Amino acid sequence: MSKDGFFARARRNPSFLVGAALVLLVAGAAALSLVWTPYPPAAIDVPHKLLEPSAGHWLGTDSLGRDVASEILAGARISILVGVIAVGIGVIFGVALGLVAASAKGVVEDLIMRLSDFAFAFPALLMAIMLTATFGAGVVNAIIAIGVFNVPLFARVTRASANAVMAREFILAARASGKGPVAIAFEHVLPNVAPVLIVQATIQFAIAVLAEAALSYLGLGAQPPQTSWGRMLSEAQNLLYQAPRLAVFPGLAIMIAVLGLNLLGDGLRDLLDPRLRARR
């Protein structure tokens, strides 16, 4: 088994390196949009609509004269925001429920798992439609829908991983020393299941970016004047023959974000899983 440190092994993992580079590119675009964009992303300039890429407009303009490069940068900000909050909701509530299920066993575990099964019957898209019908379309409702969908998934992953850890000898030693279930869960179980949760969070981040784009494409996510890659695709669909680049650029942005997050997740799995690490 290799004794190299994490970063030394990471430099030899092409999946991690490429994924990290793509994710940093998207995160950098989102951070840049907070302080600077070539033009205001929502600024309409109809006399200059559908301009081809040039020095003045790097990626051209859309059907309302908005600068496409500025919209791409601002769309990265929305995707990152939705991904972070939606995955955060899943991690906070899902991990807590998973640890409770693994620690309590019996009726409590069965109840949590049955509630998780019930939640899986309402995927993010359907949940967003229901929330939209009740509270109106918007990014907040999209985040809630995607986050609620993540909760049972993280609960299941945490429970399965925690059950495997709780069968280990050091957990029995901790119980014999007088530690309670809460202390064992946070001091011993959670650190040991953290690598699995980190990998799962990375994958769910990619799914959240795709879900946000899909919801915005359907008109259930970001609303004008907010900029979203999915809404850019929706607005470009009627101009596919006249200006196909309007669909290509946001599509590439979504592809880069999702590909980067998936590659990063695969790389982290290889680096954090002791069984895979031992083969290298």
Summarize the structure in short.
The chain has 280 residues and is mainly α. Helices cover 73% and strands 0% of the residues. It has a single domain, classed as MetI-like fold (Orthogonal Bundle), CATH 1.10.3720.10.
List the helices and strands and how they pair.
Blueprint: H1 6-10, H2 14-35, H3 68-104, H4 106-120, H5 124-135, H6 139-166, H7 169-176, H8 181-217, H9 229-236, H10 245-272, H11 274-278
- Total beta-strand segments: 0
Topology as a string of helices (H) and strands (E): HHHHHHHHHHH
Count of discrete structural domains: 1
CATH architecture label: Orthogonal Bundle
* CATH fold-level name: MetI-like fold
Main sheet properties: none
Q: What amount of the residues lies in strands?
A: under 5%
**What is the overall number of helices?**
11
Task: Tell me the distance between the termini.
Answer: 7 Å
Helical coverage, percent range: over 70%
What is the CA-based Rg, rounded? 22 Å
Low-confidence stretches: none
The CATH homologous superfamily is called MetI-like
General shape: elongated
The mean pLDDT is: 90
Q: What's the CATH class label?
A: Mainly Alpha
Q: Briefly note the structural class of the backbone.
A: mainly alpha
